[in-house]
Every structure is written in C-alpha cells, then in structure tokens.
C-alpha cells in the first residue's frame, strides 16, 4: 500500500480528495491535516510514502513544510497540489525538494498517476506551469525584500514593518524602494500584489 498524507486547509476539498484517492486499491490515507504546523509531526508519526501539500495553509505554508519534511523524513516524496499555478511557487517548490507540482483543476486520475510516478522517482510538473516558469525567470527579490514586502501586506506603516522585521525605518524604506523597482510597480501595495501574483512571496 502507498501511504498518503494530505494537507489541505479547506475541509470539504480535503474530504473529497481523501474519498477519491481512497477508492484506489493501492492507496491508504494515513493523515488528513488542515494546518501546516502539523505536517512534520504527523509525518514522523505516520511515515507516509507521499505527502500531498497545499501551499496556502494556516501556520506553516506548504512550501516551508516541504523543505522541513525533506529534512525530517527524506524518504517521503512531496507533491504540491495547489489552486495557485504561479511560476514563482513552482521554483520555490523545486528548491524545497518537492518531487511534483500540480494544479487542482486536473482530473483525480491524473493525480493518482502522479502519486505513483513520484514514488517511482520521477518528477511530475504541470506542463503549462513549467513553460511559464521558464519564461518568467528567477525571483528577483532578496530574502530581506521578501520579508519587508510580506510585512507590508496589510497596509502596515513603515514603523510597523520596521518593528516586525527588526530593521530601522530608513532600511525598510530602502528595501521597499528596491522591491518596487524590481517589480516595476509604483508603490508598495502594487509591489506586494505583483510579488504574490508571481509566487515570489
């Protein structure tokens, strides 16, 4: 049996996926989670062969959990399954050691085949997304620029951002200005939006 861990924050989607994948003769769902912080502890407890991770999760994101899972349980293959087919997310998933990246609008039969393929050591990537990732290029933002933009998401003031990321307000302004330039936008909110759309945050 192929043991699967499923991390998806929407209960109905998680239940439907578990039900559909459970119909496969060789699949066993050993864990269903709605929070990213639970992924590594439950994986160590249940020892899945493949972890299906959404990106947008409460707590730790699926991308961060993928990297942590590769460290904690390297024999477990990670397959990112997301609504957000963004080139930057694909690059980050590959850097985190994910074996596959699929968008949720495909048929469940395709997902079952992908699970078996990653378990066999293959890499499975949504073809349209792979082409888009190649044409988009790498993430131009540094880690600090990403930190500052992430802290600016809710329209926070420069002082709020500075306190959150432990930098001086002047340094925060410099990072914001650099990020705005690199994203070719007019202000920090546009920069946040552009970075999110490309999967850079």
Give an overview of the whole structure.
With 201 residues, the protein is an alpha/beta fold. The protein contains ten helices and six strands; from the N terminus they run βαβαβαβαβαβααααα. Strands 2-1-3-4-5-6 form a six-stranded parallel beta sheet, with helices on both faces. Helix 3 (62-72) links the parallel strand 3 (50-53) and strand 4 (77-82). The model has no long low-confidence stretch (mean pLDDT 89). The modification 4-aspartylphosphate is found at residue 54. This is Response regulator transcription factor. InterPro entries: CheY-like_superfamily, Sig_transdc_resp-reg_C-effctor, Sig_transdc_resp-reg_receiver, Tscrpt_reg_LuxR_C, WalR-like. Keywords: DNA-binding, Phosphoprotein.
